[in-house]
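Annex B. Sample input.
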Amino acid sequence: MKRIMGFGTRNVTDNIIRPFVNNAGGIFHEKLDQVQPYLKTKYLSFNMRAREKWYKEKNDIVVCGILRGTERLMKEAEQRDINYYYFDHAYFYRADAHKYHPVLNDRFYRIVVNGQQLNTMTKLTEQDYDRISKYQKKLPLPIEVRDPDKDDRAKNALSKDGYILICPPSAYVCNFYGIKSAAAWLKDKTEEIIKHTDRHIIVREKTSNADLNDQIYGAWAVVTCQSTVAIKAIMSGVPSFCDEMSCALPLSLSDLSLIENPKRPSIKEIENYRNNLLANQFSMTEISKGLANDMVRRLQADRYVA
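Annex B, continued. Sample output.
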């Protein structure tokens, strides 16, 4: 009999996924110790026999983040056509260090079925729009597309003087997706970009203290791997180029040969995209009450593989 299984790694994230597993009547495998990011968590209740049983029964699993062994579990699930639920920081209303949002007084997390970022559009119902509206009324997420007729800087960004803002992935992301290194990714992307444009390229490292909104505003286009920087770009009407796993994929291009002819989504397309991401992130209240379980199964039904 199939039964969902959750895997702990850190106390702060275990408390996020444990109620999701419990509300599904599943089993939560408690960690023996909290290990360093690149080490693998060990479980007293998940030995080799339990792992073989998992392979046979194809139980859905639940993990949070791409470190401490969760990456191995997800890759094993993919190899065996087993579904997994992935939890991580929300697309919007995110508070650092898993703290409560100062305005909404809750914590928010994205849940993705068989992936780490929601790179597809989902079909929303009236129920979803009502739910989104409640949060938007408390803290709106405006779409502020640059207007070159009213703003000289926007006009400059849309001219030949507009630069390319490129954001390399973190070492953790490189490790998970099998990218040689952030430097290698940056080198490959830069070499491809300069084949098709002579625009200035600005590199924004993960540790940069430069104002992100300011850098995005002056850009002709933004190039990322799977960074949520691309969401900010799209919400500002700045063209996005990203890799296939990115949540920005629905309104982005991946082919850098088109850097001078980027995709420019309409306001309506951007609104639909924002709503899609909002509908697929959940508050801790919704997770704790079991509401997220049913919503994610309905919204992401097309993403299940078994």
